[in-house]
Amino acid sequence: MPSLDMLNELIPVFVTLFVIIDPLGLVPVFIVLTQGTSAAHRRRMAIRACLTSFFILAAFALIGEGLLGVFGIHMPAFRIAGGTLLFLIALEMLFEKRSQKRNQRAEQVHQELEEDHDTDKAGKTAKAKTKTAATKTADGPTIPDDEADDVSIFPMSIPFLSGPGAIASVMLLMGKFEDNIAMQASVIGVVAVVMVIAFVFFLLANVVAKRLSPTVATVVSRLLGMILAALAVQFIIDGIKQAFF
Questions:
Q1: Is the pTM of this model over 0.90?
Q2: Which domain holds residue 110?
Q3: Which among 11, 159, 223, 236 could disulfide-bond with 83, CB atoms 3.0 to 4.6 Å apart, if both were Cys?
Q4: Does 148 reside within a domain?
């Protein structure tokens, strides 16, 4: 059972990763990218995206510092650079730029996939067209599972769930606890918890989107942005102290 001190250390770890990965903010993105697909396909996309992202972040958590060493980069420098990156992300959250960029990127990818899908459909036989038409429901056409695009790796996992910000955060947190194996294992455990939360949000995407008003989403985003900004500044201060003092 974790001690009280460990729990106190894990709270900022969870907050940092939850804010950076932002599973709640990715709900509209997931809805756009899986629009018109079946529930089974959406579930598969959610599972693959979250599992892939977990393994990517866990890999960087375990070998990230060694990888930096190959390039001659020391942790103090990475703390300053990583903290600066997180601070810029926090500013985007405070001014509502991050969600706008994500939604625009999701719309762009969705449009490109739709264009490719329409091109493929144009070359199909009349039999295939009849089969596609048969999949229509009372709510409108549904893309058959064998024709639906796989968005789990790109863009859901990379760059949304396990992008540069998330990778930098995991490596910074692992470096913070470099002499504490239990805490490093806990960081990876927190990554798993956040991915489980993301998976649940994706499964309940339509419900979450309906219940979460734009006003509430804006308030939550700005509050989390403030917290992330403070954590980012702390990373920068720690890096400066370690490098120069």
A1: no
A2: 25-121+154-244
A3: 236
A4: no
